[in-house]
Amino acid sequence: MREENVTAAAAGTTAGAEKGIDRKASSPMLQIQDLNIEFHDHSIPETVVYDFDLVMEEGDIVGIVGESGSGKTMSALALCGLLSRHDMKKTGRILFGGKELLTCSRAEMRTLQGSDISIIFQEPMTSLNPVKKIGWQVEEALRIHTKLSPEECRERALWALGEAELPEPEKVYEQYPHELSGGMRQRVMIAAAIVCHPKILVADEPTTALDVTIQAQIMELLLKLNREQKTAILFISHDLSLVRRLCRRVVVMQNGYIVEQGDVEEIFRHPKEEYTRRLIAAIPSCDGEKEEKDFAGAPVVMEAQHVQTGYDVAEGGLWGKKFRKQILQDVSFTLRQGEVLGLIGESGCGKSTLAKVLVGLKKDYSGRIEIPDHNVGMVFQDPYSSLNPSKTVGWILEEPLRVRGVRSKEERRGRVLEMLQRVELEEDLLNHYPGQLSGGQRQRVCIALALMNRPRVLIADEPVSALDVTVQAQVLEILAQLKEEMGLAILFISHDLRVVYQLCDRVMIMRRGEIVEEGSPKEIYFSHKHPYTGQLLKAAGILEDL
Amino acid sequence: MKYVGKKLLTMLLTLLLVSFLVFLCFTVIPGDPASARLGTEATPEAVEMLREEMGLNRPFFVRYGDWLLSFVRGDFGESYDYEMTVGELLADKIPITLTMSLMSMLLIIVLSIPLGLYTARHEGSWADRGIYALNQVIMAVPAFFAGILITLFFGILLKMFTPGGYVSYRRDFGGFLAYMFFPSLSIALPKIAMTVKLLRSGLISEKKQDYARTAYSRGNHTGGVLYKHVLKNAMLPILTFLGMTLTDMIAGSIVVEQVFSIPGIGRVLLTAISHRDYPVVMAVIVCLAGVVILVNGLVDLLYQWIDPRIRLEAQP
Fold it and tell me: How far is Cα A448 from Cα A455, in angstroms, rounded to an integer?
């Protein structure tokens, strides 16, 4: 069956869209046709979205998937009227409830924003106003769009907070954003978005900044809202597996174009386009066979025994008392040559603190750390801020050698070139500045930098979390190669259970500064003992897969 | 309350330290009040006698302790120079300088907040660029020179006030306020320019924050986003700046009082320093330090009132 009211141009790409949805003869709730978005704030206009088409009905859940720069967020912001009319040129049509959103006045657009069309953003930490109470912020859309009395507003806000499953709505109502955790703030964002019963809720990477267990809860909440309130959801994500768990329909985008669009399961099982296939292949999975290697005979390159540490927290001001906040409680492990040890934990569990202690950036610990050759390389999470932007890649890579006293220019150059080859970067990048490199290239530079002094141990703290899936796959590939070629031992810190499964020979699960479980990936993923491990596996959707 | 108590205690300690340092300074620097009073013709014996009489030959800590005790009792001593007690002198002069500072502060707040909001809202417009250029010029003009220009323009050319025709607040309060307007303006002008610039850039960068986008997504118009969301956040650095400005203005008033021939604290301080009139200098400096410390304390409290995140840190 084919929709009559969709124009011929749009029909081509929305062909897979009708599956299983009972269409009325009238026009759909939302219809986007041939949307093009051009940036005009530089001298050369730059198109970021080409011919975007989308049809949504009441109660639909549609996902938009793509890597950074694919135009997924731009399309969503255009729908919400949040792109500057000044710097962006938009052509095409966005029809919502019979209104043409691209040409209507700003005043008309404002009557829809926050009432019929709502949006939640990626960063719950910064998306709420820090100096206003939660209640005030949740009520704002009501004050703008309705004539309810303050008491009625309060009642509705409390209802919305309850609906977003925040414990003690009355207490939260009086609190400020900084008093809430990231997951709670995202719930507040959702409460504020649904307070006017929107017809469509745009969720722009709503769980990317959150831990897996919280992520799963927020997804549950979105599904519940869709079921009970009939709110249509446009879910934007870079994570295909999340989209698969939530959405019925998906739009795959790349470089501003729609690559493929249709039923989620259909696309997962029979992707038509090469790019979609690559995206799916890049998702780390836990079903691959893993050979179990025994490292018992290999020399120990790093050993930690009963490591404990914490931070001094001052109680403000000249007269405040100090107390110590324990971060690591009795952490012990050994790492042997050639082994990749995964360390999994949620934010705040102490995994980065452990890395700091191990490389010697934090010295006030108790317990014993032994690294026989005192040489550890370290790769950080954010390749965008870890490199000095005012120096060339060549200068940066030579620095560890200069510090170690390698005087000869030729020798330094030679070693840098050798390292570049190992991380598969072109030689001419040496004269580039970090700002000119892509995220994946930068992270490879960071890895090369960490290995310049030929350490036998590499500590990688969430090295691929900030990267797109396809880039992530490349970087992981390189790490695996380096391990083989250089006999490197890697302590791989991550919150992503799938990545760890692929790469690591042994896995430790950390919770509140304690290692609660340790074992081979098979043991951990298929026959875990600690309930917390089970919780993590379930939240990541791995237990259901099996 | 506990927090305010601690704060007050810290403020008192700071004040004590300041008074000690000032006392120490005037003991160490060359110059002697006794010889200053008797003139260059005086015999060494006469000077020595007067020193004994004034108590200047007692040990340093005894003199300091003595001064501190009477200061706490509200007795600031007697001026060597003027024929009155320091308390009377200050009571007469402080209202003048205080009026001028408060008037300047009022001018800064009333003028720069609307201007800052306007320029931030119409970023890049002709008005914005014009105000920017004007700001650059005004900022570069020191208060005393602004005072001279204002005297020339408003006083001599436009005849809106009589230069040098200071009206005592005891005789004619209205006339006093009218005369004080232009000196206050000349102190305020450079500060207004700075505040507008600071507020504008603060508002513009806050306007780009995620929470402002959230505010737009709820259907706010630009004004709503600016007034209801962004302004309070952008006011935080302004508050610190205004706190420092008030301190600066008191210092600036010393010069401006000369330009407009106003018999305020600044003038008293200048003559007292050159005549080694220690009781007056001590009292004025400690009072000024008190004002500075008090204003900073107030700014801290205001900060907490505006920013809930600081409240949390201060009252765990």
Answer: 11
SS3 (DSSP) at A513? coil
Residues A375 and A457: beta-carbon distance below 8 Å:
yes
CA distance A348 to A102: 44
Q: Which residues of A touch B218 (CB under 8 A)?
A: 113-114, 118, 140-141, 144, 192
Strand partners, A90: A37
Q: Which residues pair with A508 in a beta bridge?
A: A343, A518
- Averaged pLDDT, A33-54: 86
For the domain made up of B86-314, the CATH class stated in words is mainly alpha
Which residues does A414 contact at the CB level (< 8 Å), separation at least 6? none
Beta strands in A406-521 (DSSP E): 457-461, 489-494, 506-511, 514-519
Contact list in B for residue A82 (CB cut-off 8 A) is: 213, 216-217
User: Which residues are registered as beta bridge partners of A56?
Assistant: A30
- Please give the single-letter amino acid code of residue B255: V
Q: Tell me the three state secondary structure of residue A46.
A: strand
CB contact under 8 A, A121 and B209: no
Phi, psi of A270 (to 5 degrees): -130, 70
Q: Is residue B216 a contact partner of residue B225, using CB atoms and an 8 Å limit?
A: yes
Nearest-CA distance from B306 to chain A in Å? 7
The closest alpha carbon to A198, from B218, B214, B211, B220, belongs to B218
pTM score, whole prediction: 0.80
Nearest to B309 among A130, A317, A318 (CB): A130
Kindly list the residues of chain B whose beta carbon comes within 8 Å of any beta carbon in chain A.
Answer: 3, 6, 9-10, 209-211, 213-221, 224, 229, 232-233, 306-309, 312-316
Instruction: Let me know: does A33 contact A53? Beta carbons within 8 Å.
Output: yes
Full pLDDT tens readout for chain B, 316 residues: 567 788 888 888 988 998 899 888 877 877 777 777 777 777 888 888 888 887 788 888 888 898 888 888 888 888 877 778 888 888 888 889 889 989 999 999 999 999 999 999 998 899 999 999 999 999 888 888 888 898 899 888 888 888 888 888 888 888 898 889 999 999 999 999 999 999 999 999 999 999 999 999 999 999 899 999 999 999 988 998 998 888 788 777 888 888 888 888 888 888 888 888 888 888 888 888 888 888 888 888 888 888 888 765 544 3
Across A72-76, A239-243, A436-440, B54-58, the highest mean pLDDT is recorded for A72-76
Can you read off the two tokens belonging to residue B262?
């106003």
What integer pLDDT is reported at residue A42 of this predicted model? 67
Closest residue to B211, CB basis, from A107, A118, A127: A127
Which residue in the block uniquely carries the two structure tokens 């990626």? A122
Report the C-alpha gap between A345 and A393 in whole angstroms: 32
Q: Is the pLDDT of residue A5 over 70?
A: no
Task: Please state, in angstroms and rounded to a whole number, the distance separating the CA atoms of residues A148 and A195.
Answer: 12
Cβ of A110 and B220 within 8 Å? Answer: yes
- Contacts B204 to A, Cβ<8 Å: none
Task: Report which secondary-structure segment, H or E, holds B312.
Answer: helix B308-314
Out of B218, B313, B315, name the one closest to residue A113 (CB).
B218
* Cα(A385)–Cα(B251) distance, integer angstroms: 43
User: What Å distances lie between residue B14 and A35, A282, B17, B290, CA to CA?
Assistant: 65, 63, 5, 9
Pick the residue from chain A with its C-alpha nearest to B233: A131
The radius of gyration computed from the CA coordinates of chain B, to the nearest angstrom, equals: 24
Alpha-carbon distance values, A384 to A121, A206, A314, A439, B29 (Å):
21, 22, 31, 7, 56
Q: Which residues pair with A95 in a beta bridge?
A: A31, A100
Alpha-carbon gap, residue B27 to B23, rounded angstroms: 6
For residues A345 and A356, give the distance between their C-alpha atoms in angstroms, rounded to a whole number: 16
Q: For residue A214, give the H/E element and its range.
A: helix A212-229
